[in-house]
Amino acid sequence: MATIKASADETATARTLVVEVPGWPGHLPGQHADVRLTAEDGYSAQRSYSIASAPEPGRLEFTVQRLDDGEVSPYLAGIAEPGDQFDLRGPIGGWFTWSPASAGQRPLLLLAGGSGVVPLMSMIRAHGAAKSEVPVGLIYSVRSPSDVIYKTELSERSVSSPLTVDYRYTRSARPGTRPGRIDAAAIARLAPPPAARPDIFVCGPSGFVEAATSLLVDAGHAPATIKTERFGPTGT
Ligand SMILES: Cc1cc2nc3c(=O)[nH]c(=O)nc-3n(C[C@H](O)[C@H](O)[C@H](O)COP(=O)(O)OP(=O)(O)OC[C@H]3O[C@@H](n4cnc5c(N)ncnc54)[C@H](O)[C@@H]3O)c2cc1C
């Protein structure tokens, strides 16, 4: 059972929940957990949420993007408050994971679409906690500047660690710039050369994951070096 200890709005529609889970063993960056909500009449709904925090026993953070017509996210990102409890199962997932210890000197390349930044943030935080010198590039595709999750922290980490962030605004860009989706030029600017064998993680809606993966393959990155996770209506 997880107990909400704190919550904070990241954007107008995304909220971070800090939860405590007695006996939680910690996790690997990139893993997720299944949250189950049960109503008084016994009806229950379960959804997966990536873990946003760096590994820590007993405590973890989620960031949930609210979908107004959704069943679970409006509660987690709107109604839930400190003291509330819910069932939690995890950590889950062994493929879409990265840790400073296993990475060696390979650079890290992260591609996020919308709330797909959440598990990648766990990797960035673990990288920071380990004071890793491995270069990290994050290409973050998001509707507009006001939809950027973790904006202040990403900006601070870009100064204090070898992290470079390239934002792609798909709807409204900053004044003087035009909106643009992820493209070959964005990959060329930030991606290490394929010969450097970067560890590559792509996370977001299915369309974003497909587009980003084919751009990476076109740029010469071996499909086996690209790990993907899709946040879609079906979770596939
Ligand atoms: C491994 C994994 C990790 C995930 N991690 C996160 C996370 O860290 N943060 C986060 O906010 N979400 C995450 N998700 C998505 C999350 O599991 C839910 O799908 C999402 O919160 C919507 O649930 P809901 O009950 O509110 O909406 P539902 O009641 O399931 O759906 C409501 C409406 O929204 C559509 N919809 C459902 N899911 C999405 C979606 N992801 N994007 C766009 N439209 C959708 C449905 O087709 C439907 O029309 C993750 C999914 C997976 C599979």
Explained architecture:
The structure is a single chain. The protein has 236 residues and is of the alpha/beta class. It is built from 6 helices and 11 strands. The chain starts with a strand and ends in a 6-residue tail after the last strand. Residues 32, 47-50, 63-65, 67, 69-73, 115, 118, 205, 229, 231-233, 235 line the site of flavin-adenine dinucleotide.
Topology overview:
Blueprint: E1 2-9, E2 14-20, E3 32-38, E4 44-50, E5 59-65, H1 73-79, E6 85-92, H2 100-103, E7 108-113, H3 117-129, E8 136-142, H4 151-160, E9 163-169, H5 184-190, E10 199-204, H6 206-218, E11 226-230
Residues 32, 47-50, 63-65, 67, 69-73, 115, 118, 205, 229, 231-233, 235 line the site of flavin-adenine dinucleotide.
Return residue spans where pLDDT drops below 50 for at least 5 consecutive residues: none
Count of beta strands: 11
Rg from alpha-carbon coordinates? 17 Å
For the report, how would you describe the main beta sheet?
A: 6 strands, antiparallel
Gross morphology: globular
Order of helices and strands: EEEEEHEHEHEHEHEHE
Classify the beta-strand content into a percent band.
Answer: 25-35%
How many angstroms separate the termini? 26 Å
Task: Briefly summarize what is shown.
By secondary structure, this protein is an alpha/beta fold.
Quick tags:
globular, alpha/beta, 5-stranded parallel beta sheet, binds flavin-adenine dinucleotide, 236 residues
